[in-house]
Structures
1.
Amino acid sequence: MSASPNPQAAHGPSVPHKQGVSGRIAKAFIQSPLTPLLLIAFFLIGLLGMMVTPREEDPQISVPMVDVLVAYPGATASEVSNLISEPLERLMSEISGVKHVYSMSREGLSMVTVRFEVGEQMEPSLVKLYDKLQSHMDLIPKGVMPPLVKPKSIDDVPVVTITLSSDRLDLAQLRKIGLDVQQRFKSLPETGQSFVVGGSLEQVRVEVEPSRLSANGLTMSQIAGAISAAGQRIPAGDVVQGDRWFNIYTGAFLKNAGEVGNLVVSAANGKPIFLRDVARITQGESEVKTIVDNTLRTADGVFVETPAVTVAVAKKRGSNGIDVAKSVLDELKAMKGTLIPGDVSVIVSRDYGETAQDKVSELIFKLFIVSALVTVLAFVTMGTRPAIIVLITIPAVLLMSLAVAYVLKFTINRVSMFALVFAIGILVDDAIVVVENIYRRWLEAERTDDDLTADAVDEVGNPTILATLTVVAALLPMGFVSDMMGPYMLPIPVLSSAAMVFSLIAAFVFVPWLAARVKPKMAQLKAAADREHRQSVVIGRVYDRLISPIMNSRPLGYITLFAIIGAMLFAVALFPLGRVAFKMLPFDNKSEMQVVIDMPAGTDLFATANLARRLGAELKKIPEVVAYQTYVGTSSPFNFNGLVRHYFMRQEPWQADIAVQLQDKHKRKRSSHDIATLVRGVLTPIGKAAGARLTIAEAPPGPPVLAPVVAELYGPTPEIRREVARKLVGIFEKTPDMADVNTFMEAPHDRIEFVVDRLRAGMFGVTVEDINREIRMATGGFEVGSVQAPRNLEQAVIVLQTPLPTRVNLGNLGSLPVRSRSGSLVPLSELGHFAPHRVDQPIYHKDLRPVEYVTGDVVGHLGAPLYGMLSVDSELKKYRTPDGQIMRGKYFSRPADTNVSGFKWDGEWQVTYVTFRDMGLAFMAALVLIYILVVAEFKSFLLPLVVMAPIPLTLIGIVPGHWLLGADFTATSMIGFIAL
């Protein structure tokens, strides 16, 4: 803004010239009545966009995953794999848009998981999958059940979970309340999938002793037949009587245990034998198959543990998670004291609406702070009137960028808000450059007319356009990052580029108009110019003293050059030296975590619950823990992490997890990652002593993966793959800083099988089907009907079985009667015997290749998977596999020959590699685009290289800065590097 020393330049007539597009735009809008209307429209449209755009914590990622479950009762794992899983895998791999096909085959069940490409939509993907299944239904082998299709997406993740607990109500009553609460929540608009975890189903249990059956000449099948036949009501026709028409119904449903007990099952000596005469009949809770408890820290610091149920509610796709969560919690308040009795404790165990609101509000606040700082900086360096212009244009640009987010179906989340915070420092340049040049030209000409203002805008128009396009060229290639991180990061290049384009529009349209209305006096311009001149002189002297010796002395110049090269080498060397770690994203500071418990397969439910309680006792000692829920034999409501890892399928008695809630991050000093590290150190030895494997599952800061460290093992035979997996588990456990080591293999355990003596059974006239049916009814909790009760949201079934004490000792079932073809009763002991048999190991496939998985996590200073993987690789040099191979992990693709032992690293590393690879390519593309733009502007091939030479030198500041601050070099660091 310095005045020209040439008076003629200051006062003489300007040379006419043809204005460019920027000058013509400024001239058209500088006095147009449309300009203030357009500025107001920017604000209104932006505010509307900010209000209507859905808000959530993380961006929406469309990655359809579909589970296809097929039951094959009685089949071995290998039979399931050969006859179901492998044919299904082949079919699913033929579908367009499929990225991976996984399968798990275990005794009697196949689960094939189809993961579609990122960006594919759920509905079209489901249509293609159903079409493929339906067109091949004729290939289903005999005895195989029809496939069950279970689609899963991020929209199925509950945004709110409510935990209800009471020490006065039984589990069936507690579950009924949970179901009523769920029903009320579902009446709210925009609520999606919901479910209830825990409690007990109401049942009518019919428990029959084998000896009483034999004494009365009955079998379990007869009892089941009598109950099933009695509990029926059907429309039987219609009749006309006179001038009236009536429907005819016949039969009646059973209503309670009393009616079930009064059923006649046989007769003896002319007298009826009632069901109550041969069975014990009760109505109430089902047998304990799962355990859910809530442990809450009271106001005085004491933890109280009570049985609980948890109600989980998700939102519909595209809805505002914050609004859905708020409506659910408002409805919850209305239900307290009415639908929810006063003796039931209620806590909100998850509220993603609140966390999303906190995160978005925090970033919006930072947006205002950064905007205010930029305005203050403009005030300090340029004066009051330029600061006013900056203060008006920045919010207008940011608000319009939020309107773009709504149009493009983005959400307001921490990534999109980061994009705008990130863009502020760049987008303000356009307005500052234009307003400074306007003031400079006014000062030179000592006049402030509109033509001069338009000419001033035109003078810097092309460089401003070039600078804006250069920034856009640097940012947009990031939008082509592939895989899971692609849609996660997409708001950054798109919204930042949109903000830059709007800032250019504002600089050419609003800045001249505003400058013409907040004109400083000429004396103020001269004073500002004098101040700027004095500052320039001081800066110039300092610069001259630093640079002149280097420019004038060849030895000093070489020393400086070598110093820069040395600093560059030092900065880059910090990576291989481990001073700065590569990591996907920095750890977040959440208010929840999960302790996943895997006892040895075959462990009893109550033994698992006992370990969970011991672990919970240690959690009580951590001051930041405010509550936790223990889920044994079932899974807690899954989060995005659990969705990808299929935690919702964890239903075995040896599986459990603890959902931990922490204090709000503003009320504690330690981060959630620090607390998770502490929890891991305290709980892992306890779990190890009990033979369990624990996983401390933190909510990931980015897209979730199967585990941070995953080794996909390939090999010629299942035995070799499992042997190598066991060895790799040992190496993982010995590797420093490797934690949460686990494998998908199950501990050896037995099933009990009734071995039929076919010869004796044939001689007695008893078929295998007869034997199977009687044993199933005696031991399997066989559902033979239901009782109809008012206001029941779940059916109360009638379960037929022998009493638990009888089932505990299978020898007691020896007297179980089985009816032969001749009508006589044959004791079960005469037809075979019970014997233990080893359960088959599950068989896993990925993309049609057999595979085993070993998983883990990396802790410590270099808490990134890459460093743990490198350590494991160095240890593997000493190990030779059973088929004679010395393995090295493949980092980028699976082994070319999967018929020999080998493995591929997957997990967080795969996402990290793809992201940094694509961002590196984006950086190269940005450099090429910038070079082309600068060549087009300066008409030189060499000058752009000189201009761009300092770009890699930014690492001299970036990498050591990470080292000094103890920060990892992450994807966000790469974004900052590209932006510089």
2.
Amino acid sequence: MDELEQAILLAHDPSSDPNLRSQALAFCTGVRTSGDPSALVRLCLDLLLRSPHPPVLFWSLQSLHDCIVSSYPSFPPSTLPSIRSSLLSLFSGRLSSPSTPPFLKNKLAQCIAALIRTEYPAVWPTALIDLIPNSNLQPHAAPALNDMFARVLVVLDDDLLSQDYPRSAAELADAMRVKDAMRTQCVSQIVRHWFEAVTLYRMSEPSVAVTLLDAARRYITWIDIGLVVNDAFLPLLFDLVISPITASGLRLAAAGCLQSIILKRMDSRPKISLLRSLNLNRVFSLEPEMLIKLASLITTYASETLECYRKLGSSDPDGLSSLELLEASLPSVFYVTENCQEDEVDPAYVFDFLSDYVSTMKNPSEKQLSYLGQILQVIKSQMSYDQTYRASLDVLDKIGKEEEDQMAEHRKELFTIFRGICRVAPDATQMFIRSMLISSLSSPGESDVEEAEIALTMFYRYGETVGEEGIKSGFGLLGELIRMLLMARFSCHKHRLVALVYLETVTKYIKFVQENTQYIPHLLGAYLDERGVHHSNLYVSRRASYLFMRAVKLLKAKLVPYLDTILQNLQDTVSTFTSLGWVDKEVKLSGTEDGSQIFEAIGLLIGMEDVPGEKQSNYLAALLNPLCQQIELVLSNAKLQQIDESSTKVLTLQQIIMALNALSKGFNERLVMSSRPAIGVMFKQTLDLVLKVLAIFSNVKPLRSKITSFLHRMIDILGPSIFPRLAVALKQLLVDNEAKDMVDFLLLINQTISKFKTSVGSILEDVYPDIASRAFLILSQDAFQAGPGGTTEELRELQELQKLLYSFLHVMASNDLSYVFLAPNCRQHLDAVMQLLLFTSSRHKDMQLRKACVQIFVRLIKDWCGNSSSEDKLPGFRNFVIEKFATDCCLYSVLDKSFDFRDANTLLLFGEIMTAQKVMYDKFRDEFVMNFVSKNLSAVHCSQDLAEQYYQKLQGNDLKALRSFYQSLIENLRQKQNGSLVFR
């Protein structure tokens, strides 16, 4: 054994010393990469002829393959025959032995395929002929040689001929050359050999026959179809497929060849003639267990016949023929789709076929309606959950969540097919759903959770195709189905899946109840009994609360006669929501469906003016009093002041305030403060109590957030009467604020200003200094410069606060409250605010914020500046605007090339800047002209002529013309880019 062999063996021995192994690998790599490639070829051929070690043989074959691929042109002519003869010798000799490991056979095949690509047909014209095993070989040698021959063909297809992989231009050219030569020279001989060898080995050596047919399957796609579709080869393939004694792998290989024949690319007319000649009915009539094994063949045939039908149409005789072939295959397609596993047939392929088939129908015949019924059955079986996961889906553990997500994805294509069927055969769909509902309702116990879930899901999806008017009318069988749904009580209703989809489906068809009010009691039962809010599963109960709230919004006035019944049914639910024990158990459940929607529904009902005043007051008192008593109970214990935000009692307060907030959504200011002031008194008393909570627990941020939300509602319904309480609340809400707290606060103060305008001036004067100081403390200069972007939560909160601060300043200015900035206790922040507005209007990356700041300046100019400086409310502001704002924002920021006139938001900002220029001219006249026109435009090298034209446009009343001219002026100045101006 020489040094190289030892190194190769050491490098491939996982038990060897790591250091020695590393040295061996380096040595082998050095031999492969250094020196003359032809010398390496000779070395590899020598090792291949004499070494008994598989690792050495593999290394040699790999190195030889790499040399052929990368260095062939540099080989001396004398080397080429030896490579060829050595590979042929290995092909027919020592490496074709049955005992040779498959990885060596495959690597040898790869070397031969690489040589064929390089030399065939110019240098080695007999390459493929040389490889076809001789029929006169000894029986013991022939199977091994046939196996090697098939491997070479397979590798040649993988590495060069197949169009299933991306190829370079050189590879495509080589593939075309090889294929053309094979068609001319040897394809017919290869096909004849396939036929003879498979016939010979089908019983004695089925694995060899499988390998040969695998090669045949690949080449059928581009060889003359007549070579395999004939009286010899085709019967052999069908016999292998149909014969019960054929080995399973061989049957699949034969079916693969038939599938390649079916997929052969050709025009529709010859294609349908080919498909007809195959007479695949003999496959369709096989036993069911056999059909499942041939699922891919069956679905491919059906898909190809459908494609021919779609191209030729029903008016064409060949089109009708393709439809006949298609319909003959459909029962088998339906069977294998329902009964096959995913590894036996590709569901996506079948679903695409079914979707395409349904899309061809316009007015389905009775026969087609029958097929549509079978497709519905397929959809049903494919949509069904595995019973194994029933318990996990009920409690929705990790396994259940994964299964639910996977099924949701799996069903997407099925729903597409289902919608198509609903469109062309609504009556048949309704009958199918009716049958499923009846079957599910009659099932005992929880034996059929899956079928009930599917029946309801299909009914829900059917509602998506009917439309609002169709649901309202409930025409035909649909009305019967809705009535059946409303009165349905499934034996498996306790299961989460069934209960949830039932409620969603009831809600989907609620428009029917809106038109047929006699079914309101049934609808209320569905939401309020054990099928809905009283369901044992909390997820279902919460969802029912939300859906009931939506139902109340739609049916509100029609539910007044049932108000007492509704409230009686919800009494225990209401008390449970805010009980201490409930919070302790269920605190982890949160989100948009937090259970408070049941209070919102009640508020919507009792807040209607249709409810008599006295009754309304009694209803509200019955709800508010217990909630307020619970608050007082918590507040009565002074020790609670030290509790943290995770305390059960604090969480209870949060739940109560959420309930109060939701309840108030059914009331409006006119009812509360004018029509029925007693209601207003109750809400004020409730607010007083909530503000006590704020005073004691102002440091508990989640609770403070809930109180802030409640204040939003009280501002809406109590009107100006809230002012005394609001002043106190705003002060408390400003204590110990962080970015997120300030965001919540500014949203509240912006709502207050927008609603009450100047009426809230005195309150705003009181809190503005704290707002300004707190906001400037939280927001650093870096935050102001950041603009859009950033990924961290802290940065996102700062940017949200920044935007809301500008919004707050804008709301103040636009609601005649600019005088607050000038109030004695507020003036200390005036300079900082002005500098902030100037910086943002000129340099911020967010064009919308810049626009808002320009609008603020315009409003302040109008509010604070008179016709002369002696009339100005703020001395020095006029000069600041003319010298700073007009220069930085209206000129230099626009000259900056980042100011992109192609951007929509930038154009809107530009419009506001032009408005600002016009306002400044109207207010300041010669002062503005002297500074902006004579001084600033001259500084940026604007010609006297253009400056004069600008001045003339400024004096006119056509803002659009002024805007157009100023844009052209800016673009002209940008092109010059001269003088001392620095274009940022």
3.
Amino acid sequence: MKKAIISLVLFVIITHTLSAIDFQIKGISIAVPKPSEVNEFCDFIENDLGPSGVNTILLRVDYNFKFQSYPQVASDSAISLTDAQKIVTSCNRARIVLVPLMEMLGHQGSAWGPYELLEAFPEFDETPWVPYATATSIPDENGLYPGGLYKKSYCPSHPEVHRVTQALIGEVIDAFQARIFSPAMDEVLYIGECDRCKTTGKSNAELFAGEANRINAFVNSKNAQMWIWGDRLLQASEWGLSLWGGSMNNTWQAVDLIDKNITILDWHYTKSFVSPVFFATKGLNVISCPAGDPKVAIRQLKNLVNFQKDSYGPMFQRYKGFIVTHWGVLNNFITEFRLEKNGLSTNLNTSANSFFSMLNELRLITKQDSIDKAGENINKTIYVSELGNNANEGSMSNPVQSLNRAINLSKSGDTIKVTGVVIASGITLTNGYNLVIEGEGPDVTFLQPSSAKELSNNRVFNIVNAGNIVIKNITIRWGNSIDIPNVVSNGGNIYIENSALTLENVIVQDGKAYRGGGIYINGTRNSGGAKHHFTNTLISNNQSTAGSGGGLFVTSNRYNVTHLLIEKSTISNNRTQVYKTLGGGLFVEPYKNNTTQEGKACNITVLNSTFYGNQAANGAGIATGYVDFETNITLINNTIAFNNGFASDNAEAGSAGISVKVTPSITFTLINNIISMNKGRLWGKNELEYYDMSLSGVKLSQADCNIFTNELAKHWVGQSTKTPVGNLYQDNGYLLLADTLLYNGGITQNLSIAEGSIAINAGINHSSIKEDQRGINRDGVPDIGAYEFTSSTQLSNPNAFDSYYEKSNQTIQLNSIGYHQISIYDLTGKKVMSETVKNDNKLNVRKLESNKLYFAKIMINGKQQSTLKFIR
């Protein structure tokens, strides 16, 4: 271990230096007020903490809350739900993130008796035979009282304990509207000692990690993150720590077993250790936590700055900032803080002094860092975080809070990096603006017009006459253009006109507009090769309320044509809502001047993509409108299935797969597509009966090697300009297409085909198709549809990057060195594990449930390289 600590120091010294300082968290840890103190505390938050630079409060609630689920657990000084809401309101006004803390596992009783949980439920006591000492007892040299007692623990193996603790945690998270919760888990001296824990056969580390991960799973289910103190994860004898500062009962080994999305509160009060680097190299985010010694606090800050500046990407981002702890009476801290704030304090060793000293030192370091970079003529990066403040300058150390503010600070060519849930309402990009907007992943980064879906009254993006706009690794949601006053409400989430938009690993969902519920495209910027390009993108659950194009509406205008390429994407569960509307997934209608007969084309190519579950009166998957102007739509290796038309009379009967309305100048090229199981209305049928209607009114320039459910499509295929070949007309008994979207590998969900499917090796080679929707290599004779069946999953680039599952030690072996991001999904498509592997060639997956099939999506240096199927 000592060698490991030395290597950590060497790692910090020799790694590459980055030029920015990024501390998102500048906080304090204090006790919750008594009921009579709540109003004074709220005033303190709004008028002292917020204006002084505090952006996070770790609030030690413990059992000082009036629980509804188990009222007997509440302390005599518990605050009410109304009190909690007052505190939340003040924190919101002060732009402070509130993190409630409630002690779990340890700290359940002291020498003076049990705390509230064990008093109400004494059967939860891990060591009932250890007596409580008397108030007059004297601790020994280790701080232990007669009988060995320091702080009691509850038993993590008791069959009823989690029923109670999860109810309490859930109430606290809800009451404080928390996005982050801390179960503390510090100073756990009693663990694995009762018969229940011993019979599990688990080590103390496994018991500790099991409890931490169980609480984390529950906290995550409440859409919150979890922070814990780090002392039980440090081996006391190797770090030179006390009984309280480090583990002497082998819980320290749990550092390799806890979930990697748990953040560590690394507290040290007398020295500055390199433990932040230790936790960061374990893949954990870390926050330094000093107390009332400003000299120690400043040393910890300087170390943290150096640790961060001398690190590469993932390591750089794991040092989150600092929280100064105060363990005394709240009113004393308020007095100290106000004296220190106004320069009147005479006591140097206070937590308040430590906070102001760290904040001032950070400002000096940041200022010098800015001076050192002065004169650099490069495009800048602006940072946006839900923990930011719009009064900030948008640096990594001082991010802004809204995307609107970041846009105002940017110039053309800049990059904006976004973390968390960020408000982005009516963002306007114009005047040839070029911009990159990048998140940390669509499952963790969200852009939305308001704090709640029902409050939304604006779209997210309005992109008109801009240059190249690149958006990646983000979810864009809840746009609502219907309620925008004095605006034509097209494009629920995104409206784009005469620009070039790139979406990469983006989810566009839950948008609402008259036309184009998800995205409305009106022309591409007039520049050589410019196009809109959507890859690995999901457009889902959007709706058009009065017009066509539930997911995507594409048109051109009098000035510009539209060029659109969609690949490896899924357009699913979008819908139009009213009679005579078209194109639940994609609707295309080029511009044409009816007087001059001049117009502009829409040239659209869709490759390796899935259209699923979309609804419209007609053309639920893809449709074109009534404007007839030369337009080319090319579809290669797509799956268009299980879309539904809901036309209610014969006048609007037609296809639910692809439908064209009297537009002979719009031509389709269909190669290697599955267009099947789409329910629509047959023309000439008076009964309200639905049939599998894959094609209607389509003019085809080429139709080769496609699969349709039945021969109703033959009429249109037979009129293809090029003589059609290789088309099949068979139902799902022969096609064997899955009826539910799943993560079968790759970034987007798709529909798989089973062994024996008529789609296997039934396609023709095409220069545009080298891989399927998941990024799996297609063999010499490709399959039909977006999914390539393989008996054992192939890799996109097997020579450059190979991976496999090693059953003997339950690891995924990575035969490549780099920054690996690995996401693992079960058969239902649920993500069950997400890890980052740096400077190693393996990932242990022991914590997955055994004897189950899993899919691993493996990315190296931000680029998808392979998918892997394995049985744990």
